[in-house]
Automatic annotation (TrEMBL), chain A:
GO terms for biological process: mitochondrial respiratory chain complex assembly; protein import into mitochondrial intermembrane space. Keywords: Disulfide bond, Mitochondrion, Oxidoreductase, Protein transport, Redox-active center, Translocation, Transport. Residues 64-100 form the CHCH domain. InterPro entries: CHCH (IPR010625), CHCHD4 (IPR039289). PROSITE patterns: CHCH (PS51808). GO terms for molecular function: protein-disulfide reductase activity. PANTHER family: COILED-COIL-HELIX-COILED-COIL-HELIX DOMAIN CONTAINING 4 (PTHR21622:SF0). Residues 121-143 have a biased composition (Low complexity). Pfam families: CHCH (PF06747). The gene is LOC113055337. This is Mitochondrial intermembrane space import and assembly protein 40-like. It is found in: Mitochondrion intermembrane space.
TrEMBL record, chain B:
Functions both as NADH oxidoreductase and as regulator of apoptosis. In response to apoptotic stimuli, it is released from the mitochondrion intermembrane space into the cytosol and to the nucleus, where it functions as a proapoptotic factor in a caspase-independent pathway. Release into the cytoplasm is mediated upon binding to poly-ADP-ribose chains. The soluble form (AIFsol) found in the nucleus induces 'parthanatos' i.e. caspase-independent fragmentation of chromosomal DNA. Binds to DNA in a sequence-independent manner. Belongs to the FAD-dependent oxidoreductase family. Transmembrane segments: none annotated. This is Apoptosis-inducing factor 1, mitochondrial. Residues 230-245 have a biased composition (Low complexity). It comes from Carassius auratus. The lineage of its organism: Eukaryota, Metazoa, Chordata, Craniata, Vertebrata. Residues 259-585 form the FAD/NAD(P)-binding domain.
């Protein structure tokens, strides 16, 4: 059973697991998905890409940021059946750029799949393994965090 | 002013005398109206024109003199103002080498108006010149005597400098450098006075205002010819560095579309944000430090726990999953060199290290660096952070004590303390807040291996006494003790002295602590040195630059990070000194610099770990003076910071929310986590901080990865009847 004690102005409540089993009746305000103030996820409400999403890490702001933006935009708006298949050129130039900065974009994987993957754009192409953690670049998210954002 | 006062002082008794005289007359006439008519008449006559004539005349003369003096003073001030304004315009025009025509125009204008001020100048300058001369000459130069003795020659010297400027606009830099120098050398001796007098009649430019209003150029010019009196160096500072250090200037771009002052977390976050939103943006970061932007939390946490003996050098720390990361946000290859910034095709971020911005001209949208270089900007961010505070008793204690004191903030402080921890026998940390407690734990962990005694002392009753409610603060203190730290509470330092190769700390209650080295972790003083020159407001309650909800101080100036006192729409005006806030505010400032116009909305969080058993994340206003409601459950072995990092693979916990990053090293490499033992049941839980019954702050105690819920509750700002129900939202019993 939970019990409660008061230490001056501070109240302390101890609860057991059972106490907290019943769903909460605390009311939370509905979130407005179009709130302009809120930090947005990767894709903005109007469908555009949020280049400032923390999940992208430094991808859009680094030396190859321009190439990355072009490649990913192309992919995002691609209407091909095999999404992104019309963006090979963009991805190639991005890869070329990234090869010039091996410190920033470690090439652990030779897998340069332009079809990098639907949500895993940041982990697309050469950077599949390199992004998540190892590079000094505080880098983009795993799928878990992308989903969260 | 003086005149008025002295005049009044003289007048007052006179007035009193004449008034009492009148009164007496009145009384006499009333009381002895009939009989004493004659006497009254006589009395009246004594104060009439004939008898009191002498006194009255004196009275009139004095009043007249006062009025005249006042009039002359006012006239001088007004014309002096005009003259000062002209001088200032000339200085500004003279500085840039590319605008000779402007300088010419300005000097021409000033030359025209020179007639009036000329005559007044010598006398005018005497009064204001003396005081600042004395103070600054004493401070800056050894040869202060010639300066004080010949204040009148100073303005004249100044006159000579603009002269060549007017004549030879094109070769300005060279001419200015060569001409003033000979002038300076001989100015100290008397013969010059004559020559200079001649010059004076031509160009009455005496930037006395230089002395009064610009101490910084004086400091800049300290390296310029040593014999030069203060005022000269003020003017010389512009031409001289122009030639002497043109080499140094060559790597400083003259213009940067986005100028970020300060090279810390907020600045880097802003740079990233700007680059993301403005394609091809050219961002210049100017930092006093010699390091590229790096993050601070590992300096007091992970780097101390690293196995790698080279960690201090490389500043890399290993995570549980084996992956390493550096504390630098990006390796050097990420950045563009400052000289290339203007040319590189897609723009980039350049970092100018080892340079301090000393002056900001908001009207002209440019800043001046410590070496005299100037950079103009379109948008500017001030992210200067702060400097660690020191205890007054230590500052006054002398050099031996100061040598053995560390003010911890930067990489070099970490390296130095790490080295010291291996050399000394005893370290005392003064301060019981985040930094003090984290360092105490870090050093305490090493204490057994190194044979090091670690003492922590603070005025509160327990660690984090200003953040956590008392019961929790006590519990934390016990944990820190278990890390091997000798904690002394209720300790106010009275003085520190150096005796027998040891530091002796005397507390107010008489206790004496002997130690080898002191670490002062007593707060941060925000750096607001640019406020004066930029005309920015400094907040008196929280310190820092006062900015609005969009982090804007003035039209093209934003402030972020530790130095920003901003308006939080939900929680009110505040200033936050945490890593995640630097990231969030830096990012927001960057967005607003590229046109977003968004207010501070996403609440930043902070976290701390004190050993493997105590870790918490917090958000909002977490002040122990507020009433709190804490909801706790018994913790299992799984609820420790170590486990949290293993699970999410992150160490910088703010990033676990948005970016998966290198995790961190927690504790030793011993595999099984120790079972958590609690005397009281404060194993894990959530604590709500209330202000007027609204939750304004939340601490998640050994409960991780629930920050979004906490953020939501604060954002709602609702009054909840039963906080236990709110606590249910956190599922504290689960992992």
């Amino acid at each position: 059973m939970s019990y409660c004690k008061q230490e001056g102005k501070d109240r302390v409540i101890f609860v057991t697991k059972e106490d907290h089993e019943a769903p909460s009746n605390a009311e939370l305000i509905e979130d407005d998905p179009n709130d302009p103030y809120e930090d947005q996820g990767l894709i903005l409400p109007n469908g555009d890409i949020n280049w400032n999403c923390p999940c992208l890490g430094g991808m859009a702001s680094g030396p190859c940021g321009q190439q990355f933006k072009e490649a990913f935009s192309c992919f995002h708006y691609s209407k091909e059946e095999l999404k992104g298949s019309d963006c090979v050129e963009n991805f190639r130039s991005m890869q070329e750029c990234m090869q010039k900065y091996p410190e920033l974009y470690p090439q652990e994987d030779d897998d340069s799949a332009p079809s990098g993957g639907a949500d895993n754009a940041p982990t697309a192409s050469t950077s599949t393994d390199s992004f998540p953690t190892s590079s000094p670049d505080s880098t983009p998210a795993t799928t878990k965090n992308l989903a969260a954002s | 002013m003086f005149k008025c006062k002295t005049a009044w002082n003289k007048l007052a008794p006179l007035v009193r005398a004449s008034s009492t005289l009148c009164l007496q007359n009145a009384r006499k006439s009333v009381l002895r109206h009939g009989r004493r008519l004659e006497m009254v008449q006589r009395a009246q006559m004594s104060s009439g024109p004939a008898g009191g004539g002498g006194e009255n005349t004196l009275y009139y003369v004095l009043v007249g003199a006062t009025c005249l003096g006042g009039g002359v003073y006012a006239y001088r001030t007004v014309s002096g103002d005009k003259e000062r304004y002209n001088e200032r315009m000339i200085d500004i025009a003279n500085r840039p080498k590319q605008r000779p025509s402007a300088a010419e125009a300005v000097t021409a204008v000033v030359a025209e108006s020179k007639e009036e001020p000329v005559a007044e100048e010598p006398t005018l300058t005497e009064a204001p010149v003396e005081e600042p001369l004395v103070t600054e000459a004493v401070v800056e130069f050894t040869e202060s005597e010639p300066v004080v003795e010949e204040p009148v020659t100073e303005p004249i010297v100044e006159a000579s400098i603009p002269e060549p400027t007017v004549e030879t606009q094109v070769t300005e830099p060279v001419v200015e450098a060569s001409v003033p120098e000979p002038v300076i050398e001989i100015s100290v001796t008397e013969p010059v006075a004559e020559a200079l007098v001649v010059l004076q009649s031509e160009e009455p430019l005496a930037p006395i205002v230089e002395i009064e209003t610009k101490p910084t150029p004086v400091i800049i010019a300290a390296h310029v010819p040593e014999a030069s009196p203060v005022s000269e160096s003020a003017a010389v500072s512009e031409p001289a560095p122009a030639t002497e250090s043109t080499a140094a200037h060559s790597d400083v771009p003259e213009h940067a579309a986005y100028l970020l002052i300060g090279g810390g977390t907020a600045s880097f976050a802003a740079a990233r944000s700007i680059r993301a939103r403005d394609p091809g943006a050219r961002v210049l970061i100017v930092t006093e430090e010699s390091e590229l932007p790096y993050m601070r939390p590992p300096l007091s946490k992970e780097l101390w726990f690293s196995d790698d003996p080279k960690a201090t050098e490389t500043l890399r720390f290993k995570q549980w999953n084996g992956k390493e990361r550096s504390i630098y946000f990006q390796p050097p290859s990420f950045y563009v060199s400052p000289t290339d910034l203007a040319k590189v095709e897609n723009g980039g971020v350049a970092v100018l290290t080892g340079r301090k911005v000393v002056h900001m001209d908001v009207r002209e949208n440019k800043v001046k660096l410590s070496d005299g270089a100037e950079i103009s900007y379109e948008k500017c961010l001030i992210a200067t952070g702060g400097v660690p505070r020191n205890l007054q008793v230590i500052e006054r204690a002398g050099e031996e004590v100061m040598k053995r004191t560390t003010l911890f903030r930067k990489i070099e402080d970490f390296r130095s303390l790490e080295k010291i921890s291996r050399e000394v026998k005893s370290i005392t940390i003064i301060g019981g807040g985040f930094l003090g407690s984290e360092l105490a734990c870090a050093l305490g962990r090493r204490s057994t291996d190194l044979g090091l005694e670690v003492i922590q002392l603070f005025p509160e009753k327990g660690n984090m006494g200003k953040v956590l409610p008392e019961y929790l603060s006590n519990w934390t203190t016990e944990k820190v003790r278990k890390e091997g730290v000798n904690i002394i509470m209720d300790a106010v330092v009275k003085n520190v002295s150096y005796k027998n190769d040891k530091l002796e700390i005397k507390l107010k209650d008489g206790r004496l602590i002997e130690t080898d080295h002191v670490v002062a972790a007593v707060g941060l003083e925000p750096s607001v040195e640019l406020a004066k020159s930029a005309g920015l407001e400094v907040d008196s309650d929280f310190g820092g630059y006062r900015v609005n909800a969009e982090l804007q101080a003035r039209s093209n100036i934003w402030v972020a990070g530790d130095a920003a006192c901003f308006y939080d729409i939900k929680l009110g005006r505040r200033r936050v000194e945490h890593h995640d806030h630097a990231v969030v505010s830096g990012r927001l400032a960057g967005e607003n610099m590229t046109g977003a116009s968004k207010p501070y909305w996403h609440q930043s969080m902070f976290w701390s770990d004190l050993g493997p058993d105590v870790g918490y994340e917090a958000i909002g206003i977490v002040d122990s003076s507020l009433p709190t409601v804490g909801v706790f459950a018994k913790a299992t072995a799984k609820d420790t910071p170590k486990a949290a990092t293993e699970q999410s693979g992150t160490g910088i916990r703010s990033e676990s929310e948005t970016e998966a990053v290198a995790g961190t090293l927690k504790a030793e490499t011993v595999a099984p986590p120790r079972p958590v033992q609690q005397k009281e049941d404060y194993g894990k839980g959530v604590i709500f901080y209330l202000r007027d019954n609204v939750v304004v702050g939340i601490v998640l105690w050994n409960v991780f990865n629930r920050m979004p819920i906490a953020r939501k509750i604060i954002k709602d700002g609702e009054q909840h009847a039963d906080l236990n129900e709110v606590a249910k939202l956190f599922n504290i019993h689960e992992d």
